[in-house]
Amino acid sequence: MTSEEWARWRRDVDLSGYDDRWARMAAAGRNPHGEVDFVMRLAPAAVLDAGCGTGRVAIELARRGVEVVGVDLDPELLGVARTKAPDLAWVEADLAELDLGRTFDVVVAAGNVIGFVAAADRAAAVAHAAAHVAPGGRWIAGYQLRAGWPTLTDYDGWCAAAGLELEARVATWDGEPLGETPDYAVSVHRRPG
Ligand SMILES: C[S@@+](CC[C@H](N)C(=O)[O-])C[C@H]1O[C@@H](n2cnc3c(N)ncnc32)[C@H](O)[C@@H]1O
């Protein structure tokens, strides 16, 4: 399930303008693909975009030659993704129950997905996402560190329970170091093998 917070956000958002934010970033000379650049440093062949929304990350990964699958439980957002990239694989599913029967070099959750999963489902969402990470592969998630959202200690515990080891943690998708009091973290966990 998604959180109440996400449900509120969805009620208020104008879907037709949802992607404009990234277009505005590009127009302002800022990089709208920090997440994809980050993932591409690992040179993955196959990536699962967990909580793909309108497909922003998955579509750019595919454009760079990666095999991608996008998963989200919101049919409307997935509809936008399908319209933009009908040839890509889009799956409507709850991360907390996901079972695609295969693994990926990287599973990435960009854009606060973990925080927007309902609190009771977050551990299961991490476990099910992690189950899709191949041996030697990575689970990468970036989310804000704010009240009511998972602490890094909780998050690392869920990852460890899923057999993943913390490999790196930075403050932004551009790789800036984590400061003393971070308000955002990008965490990279690796499945040994
Ligand atoms: C802020 S959006 C980020 C979308 C996309 N990753 C991006 O960066 O543009 C958060 C996404 O998480 C999805 N989400 C939240 N809870 C989920 C769950 N339990 N299973 C699958 N997707 C979920 C929402 O539907 C939404 O698309």
Polypeptide structure, described:
- The chain is an alpha/beta fold.
- Helices cover 34% and strands 24% of the residues.
- The chain is built from 8 helices and 7 strands, in the order αααβαβαββααβαββ.
- It has helices spanning 4-12, 20-27, 34-40, 56-63, 75-84, 113-116, 122-130, 152-161, and strands at 46-50, 67-72, 89-92, 104-109, 133-144, 165-170, 184-190.
- Strands 3-2-1-4-5-7-6 form a 7-stranded mixed β-sheet.
- Strand 2 (67-72), helix 5 and strand 3 form a beta-alpha-beta unit.
- The chain binds S-adenosylmethionine.
- Residues 1-2, 6, 51-53, 56-57, 72-74, 77, 94-96, 110-113, 116-117, 121, 125 line the site of S-adenosylmethionine.
- S-adenosylmethionine (SAM) is lined by residues 1-2, 6, 51-53, 56-57, 72-74, 77, 94-96, 110-113, 116-117, 121, 125.
TL;DR of this structure?
The protein is an alpha/beta fold. The protein is 34% helix and 24% strand.
Number of helices: 8
Helix residue percentage: 25-40%
Q: What is the overall silhouette?
A: globular
Q: State Rg.
A: 15 Å
Tell me the strand percentage band: 15-25%
Which distinct ligands sit in these coordinates?
S-adenosylmethionine
Largest sheet: 7 strands, mixed
SSE blueprint:
Layout: H1 4-12, H2 20-27, H3 34-40, E1 46-50, H4 56-63, E2 67-72, H5 75-84, E3 89-92, E4 104-109, H6 113-116, H7 122-130, E5 133-144, H8 152-161, E6 165-170, E7 184-190
Parallel strand pairs: 1-2, 1-4, 2-3, 4-5
Antiparallel strand pairs: 5-7, 6-7
Helix pairs in contact: 7-8
The structure holds S-adenosylmethionine.
S-adenosylmethionine is lined by residues 1-2, 6, 51-53, 56-57, 72-74, 77, 94-96, 110-113, 116-117, 121, 125.
